[in-house]
Backbone:
């Protein structure tokens, strides 16, 4: 295919895509691509046929990082890959809007063989069906645990054929995690309160996020598990009553604004200052790269970070 014809095909694809959305045409009216020769499975349990060594558009920075770790060819990704993850993306990689507002026209125009989506993002929820209408295979992934990451990387490395990168970025990381969990003392672990801070408020979190899951695996008891109402309305009275051994804080959005809000809350409220975790310096601001974004090949570092705080004697 010469360059002129290829560019024309991209324009035609965009036009067809828009017409399909407007008219509600069925997938049978679109022209499918040639079937690939690698069958993978996504987090929804769907089987997807993907060309070997596919050029992928990845609409989530953390997944773009994972795709590159698997040796994948990245043709396009969203702004967060650069602005938040600071990924060293290949020259010529198209920026396809934001995670919550992907640029569909730019996505189609960059002519990917494969599109990788996040199952957690509402704006991407209907995109798989829309892409299927123009014959572009898509896969949804949801990553909350290391096992989820390992599953996703298994699929990626099947496409790229790079078993060596699975060994490096998954198997070796698993060994680090196992070694951390091996030295966690048996018996009742410390009590914790996990908080997510925003620029205008805070919320208690349970084990529905990667930090909460890791704390549970490290033997901690999250006080929010005793009182689910705390997840909707963080009761200071309940926190005082439970008086957790540790308070862990993750941030969302503007980190500086979120921490400013939380630090002001502590400094101006005597009840917070009376908590033993605050008095003894056992409230910890979790680094975003290890606990907010998916840590990917650094998952072992995330476990080590928490273990050294929770069990300093054992860690030595």
Residues:
């Amino acid at each position: 295919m010469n360059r002129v014809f290829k560019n024309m095909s991209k324009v035609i694809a965009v036009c067809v895509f828009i017409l399909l959305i407007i008219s509600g045409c069925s997938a049978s009216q679109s022209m499918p691509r040639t079937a690939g020769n690698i069958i993978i499975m996504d987090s929804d349990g769907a089987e997807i046929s993907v060309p070997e060594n596919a050029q992928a558009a990845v609409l989530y920075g953390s997944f773009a990082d994972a795709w590159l770790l698997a040796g994948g060819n990245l043709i396009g990704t969203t702004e967060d890959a650069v602005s938040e993850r600071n990924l060293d993306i290949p020259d010529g990689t198209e920026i396809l809007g934001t995670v919550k507002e992907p640029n569909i026209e730019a996505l189609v125009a960059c002519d990917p063989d494969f599109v990788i989506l996040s199952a957690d993002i509402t704006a991407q929820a209907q995109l798989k069906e829309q892409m299927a209408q123009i014959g572009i295979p898509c896969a949804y992934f949801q990553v909350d645990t290391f096992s989820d990451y390992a599953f996703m990387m298994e699929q990626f490395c099947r496409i790229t054929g790079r078993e060596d990168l699975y060994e490096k970025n998954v198997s070796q990381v698993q060994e680090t995690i196992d070694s951390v969990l091996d030295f966690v003392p048996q018996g009742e672990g410390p009590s914790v309160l996990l908080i997510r801070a925003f620029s205008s408020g805070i919320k208690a979190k349970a084990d529905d996020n990667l930090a909460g899951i890791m704390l549970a695996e490290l033997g901690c008891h999250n006080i929010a598990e005793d009182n689910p109402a705390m997840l909707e309305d963080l009761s200071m009275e309940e926190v005082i009553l439970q008086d957790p051994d540790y308070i862990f804080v993750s941030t969302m959005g503007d980190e500086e604004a979120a921490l400013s809000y939380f630090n002001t809350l502590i400094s101006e409220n005597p009840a917070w200052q009376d908590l033993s975790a605050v008095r003894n310096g056992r409230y910890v601001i979790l680094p975003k790269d290890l606990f907010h974004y998916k840590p990917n090949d650094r998952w072992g570092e995330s476990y080590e970070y928490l273990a050294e705080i929770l069990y300093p004697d054992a860690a030595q």
